[in-house]
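lol ok so funny story. i was supposed to be doing the assay writeup but got distracted and ended up predicting the structure for this chain instead. priorities right. anyway since i did it might as well share w the group, maybe its usefull for someone
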Amino acid sequence: MSLIESVDINTLLGCQIALTLVYAVVFCCMKMIYPHLRGAGSVAIAFLLATVANILLLFSDSLPIFLSIIASHVLLLSAFVLFYTGVLHFFRSPRKIRYAWFLTFLSSALTVYLVQSHRHPMALTWTIAISFFLIRGVIALEVYLQAAGRAFLRIFAFFMALYAVFALNRILFLLIYHAPPTQAQRAVIQTVSVLLSVSFAFLIGLSFLLMLCSELLTLVKEESERDLLCGVFNRRGIEHKLDAELKRTSRAGHSLSIALIDVDHFKAINDRAGHAAGDSALRDVVSAISERLRSHDLVGRFGGDEFLLIFPRTSCPDALTLASRIEQSVRERTVHGADMALTISTGLTQAAHGETAAPLLARADKALYSAKNAGRNCCRVLLHETHEDSGSNRVLLTPSHSDVS
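and the output, tada:
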């Protein structure tokens, strides 16, 4: 019977070695391909250490006790600390891990002393069990604290907590039976322990892999909606934001205004100072706009030298004030490499209740071309198509004055 149990344990350890090695390779490759994935590197090293530790356990009968017990447990404990590090990095948690490494060092020192002394076998059991319980427990707690609104993370935290409690199995056995387990009981406990370790290694690796895949999808989506030159939303990204804000505005009944901005004489900038100066001018315009925007306002590059600004919960008069500040901020900058001041033309409008993006953008575009036809370096406001010809809805802003035409 013991031979069968031994074969079963070795088989399970072999499965765990293969599993942890696969996870180590997968997470290492993900980190190499996507360097911005937070925590993947630490988790890859954690699974690599777990692989080495399990190899030492698999060949424990033919290895010195220093390697079979001390080194394997130190490696496993370090693996959990590194996994905890990866979890903290993934969630951008401000918590430090000094205490976890201190616990690892203290536990390792106690393990070395107790193994070498051969006088305190029960103390060795307590040291190893409590160390793994604490490390696994803080991982479970961290995941639970970050699981608000995400049922998957709560389930992961629950299983991790069970894994932490299971680390105390031999201590619980002593507390219940008031005696150490017999050889047969130890074999059963060891078999169950390795089986659960394989199961939890699979669940832990799969859970973190799903977390990274979700983060990767988010990064890909964000990159697909970002303008590489200016760092703001591209046309697709800002149009998605506009659709979302219009729906939110329709439900809440708030005001929403938008502005289309065009960099004046942008072709002349490229012709006189070169395309590098033109790129720099676009970035300067974005910087000037961003300095004046509120935290809930949005900006995106709508075309070559056009930008779309979204002002949620903002009426047209308030948006006009913001546009005036943006124009002033832009005028304070100059084109590098050319004796030219940066100026912009702005077309401003306000969304009607239940209005969709297409007519709203068309009206802002008409207001922008009205500003261009008026000589540029000004802002035109077009409130409603039916009032366009009356003139009462247009506001002209120049660097020196503003008037209503």
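The longest helix spans residues 183-224. The two ends are 98 Å apart (CA to CA).
back to the writeup now i swear
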